[in-house]
Amino acid sequence: MSPGLPGSLVRLLLPGALLLPACVDEPEPPWGHAPPLSELPATVDPPPVTDWLAEYWTFPVPAQGDAPPDWTPLEQRLDPDACGTCHPAQLADWRESWHHLAMGPGVLGQIVDWDGTDDRLVHQCQTCHAPLTEQHARLQQDDTWVDNSLLDEDMRAQGLTCAGCHVRQHQRYGPPREGRDVDESGRALAEGPHDGFIPRPEFQSSAFCARCHDFRPSQRALNGKLLQETGEEWRRTAFAAEGRTCQSCHMPEGRHLWKGIHDKDIVASGVEIRGGLQEAGSLLTPVTASLTLTNTGVGHRLPTYTTPEIKLILVQVDADDNEIARSRREGSVARRIKPDLSKELFDTRLLPGESYTLPYAVRRQPGAVAVVARVEVWPDEAYRRFYEIKLRRPENHPKGEAMLREALQNSIDSRYTLWEERWPLP
Question: Model's pTM, two decimal places?
Answer without folding.
Answer: 0.90
